[in-house]
Amino acid sequence: MTLPTSRSTALSHIRICDMTGQLAGAGATRFLAAFGAQIIRVEDPVRQGTWDILRGVPPFKDERRGINLGGAFNNHNVEKLGITIDLRQERGKELLRKLVAVSDAVTENFAAGVFARMGFPYDEMQRLKADIVYVSNSGFGATGPYSGFRTWGPIVQAVCGLTFGSGLPDLPPAGWGFSYMDHMGANYMAVAILAGLIHRNRTGEGQWIDMSCTEAGLSLCGPDLLDFTVNGRPLRRAGQPNSNRNHSPAMAPHNIYAAAGDDEWIAIACRDDDDWRRLAAVIDEPWAKDARYATLDGRLAGQDALDAEMDRWTRTLDRHAAAERIRAAGVPASIVASPDDRIDHDPGTGEFGLWPMARHTEMGDVRVDGVPVHMSETDWSIEHGAPCLGEHTDAVLRDVLGLDADEIESLHEEKVV
Amino acid sequence: MNAPLPGPLDGIRVVEIASEHAAWAGKLLADLGADVIVVEPPGGHPSRAYGPFLDDEPGLERSLYWWHYNTSKRSVVLDLADAGDGARFRRLAGESDVVLEGEQPGRLAALGLDHEQLRADHPELIWVAVTPFGRTTSRAHDPATDMTLLAGGGPVWNCGYDDHTIPPVRGGGNQAFHIASVFAVMSTLTALLQRDVSGHGQFVDVSMHAAANVTTESGSFDWLVARNTVIRQTGRHALTFVSQETQVRCIDGRYVNTGFPPRHVKDFESLRDWVDELGLREQFDDIVLLDLAVERGGVSLADLQEDPLVAEIYGSGRSALVYLAEHLTPEEFFLGAQQRGLAVGAVWSPEEAMTNEHFVARGFPVEVDHDDIGRMITYPGAPFVSARSPWRISRRPPHVGEHQSEVFGSGLFGSG
Prior knowledge:
Strand order of the largest sheet of chain B: 3-2-1-4-5-6
Low-confidence stretches of chain A: none
Number of domains of chain A: 2
Shape of chain A: elongated
Strand order of the largest sheet of chain A: 3-2-1-4-5-6
Oligomer: heterodimer
Radius of gyration of chain A: 25 Å
CATH topology of the largest domain in chain A: Rossmann fold
CATH architecture of the largest domain in chain B: 3-Layer(aba) Sandwich
Distance between the termini of chain B: 39 Å
Structural class of chain A: alpha/beta
């Protein structure tokens, strides 16, 4: 077997020894893999790679079950190579040292300090490869009083303020409904890896980059943070948060309104007085022509009444038809799109080629998330599904580490790989 | 004092046409050490009129929105519709590594200032366009805001309350801009690394709608893999089934997230000991089951399906977490549980997080010298610590056109 490669050549000169998992780590190297970097994902043969809790769990494509058949794992690990090494054994550690020595970067998202205790502190990796770029991604970073704390996406979001900032008045926080900070943590981790490589290319110098998911999340809370540090105004105050409205900049109407049907909704935003005039023409009811709504100040002052009128108007409307009519008038509007709506019936994603089909060795063809950018010369390519457990072990040992057949066989016999 | 080390993008010049869409991308590149020159229209970019404002008084240099999105940048003013300023923009772009913009598709081409029109003279230039629906889809001209993008792109579907008569929720903080901007930065850095090898630049088309669509976790992959639809639930993951609540109201009315219920014996022991330490043994209804969980050495997921008693024992871990949370403050619960190895979180407001001991100890809040108003202003700092090429806010956000003569008067770009 020869090693598969992505068709993108953007990063084909980069090799990464990848210890990441879940989404917060795996999502970072996924982006690099789609742009052609050689991502060698190292998993534990003893626990069958289940340190990554997504290995072998739902959703499944069909009735088959198994360690290689988890849909989330496949989604987050496309275009990567997968090898197994038992790092409890000295021979396993030696193999990983060899891999580090021929890699540009090492990436992991264990709890802080775990990888060092496994025998791979930064100093050791630097000894193996002087200019190695090492990026660790943990919930609270490698230093500070909470560095040993454990997190998942929802915990990160709770602690950093993002959960609190999503909700309606007099109700509990609504939060994000998914691991937003696994996605964004992964994205920031990719930035850290790429920036580390750029610095290395310019200076010849490697480094350890210590990424903290909660700090990435805190920086995403937006201008509300400065309202506190500058004006002393906390977001925890009466009437706030009210995140379906917009106060920075102030807009009205700006909300998510009920449409006809069961649990169907439409988001409508008037950015300025012109938007409101155009929307009022679409509404074409006496209340919409009320002079007090003609200016933003007037609409903000009467926003509760305005929202009640808007809601009464939208309640009888088909959400698709209404969103189209409002947009045709030049006013921002959107259905609250279901997965079916936006994946299978939206030219905004379909024409962009956002849902590529990846071929997985056991699962077969499965659609996965694409990358939301296109590059004119060296665009991303996703054709290969995630690796099965140890799928590329022998080929990597032979072609990347230069081991001969006898050595590889002996590693199998001793269950090192 | 030694001069601070340069950031990883030291020596890279970025021309950013001011926009809502890409402002965060420009800020990230600038804080990473690039020389980001933000081009504003005459009178300044409209986002300078967005609140909140310094001391609640509006003013071009007082918008905290502008401040937040424009640290470390320099500002020039150009009227791109003016021939002379258009020529200045061309020269500026030609002396840069990256152009970053969020203009309505077609506008720059009509002015003769798009990538297509500059690429022949500047083949090494990287051009990054961040637009609501990408440059080429049939939706390219649909009007959009942060909320409508998050509603149409998937995140809002996941987000809200168990009670579905309450509208689904758009999370705060301009995340449609942030998601797209971070993808823009990842792509810019990828294009820079690729240019190191090939010597040529390229055009990067970032769709904010696409970016939101691939930021929904199981919202997308449950559909792609199995055509299952997730259901929104209060303060926890949208799933294809209704899960148990994880968000609990504490003794002071604030909330915590209790995380996954425990299965290992040491976690049950920790919870039992904690209940005892607080003197709550007599009041906690499930104490017998919690004791049983310890005696039996935890629970296995396999037995959970088979044995109803095991399911009850397993449930005691969750009820202990809920019971403890209800009797403590978020801080007491969060620290107490984490010190016992349990992954839970306090639901803090942004200001509670910003002033927390951990983030302060790591130097996350940073002081930026606003020499113009004689104040030090505290900003959120680096999302990662990179010792050899630090992320750093190198200067306060610029005034309108503050660097006009510095940029255009140097002779570098001609006297024009």
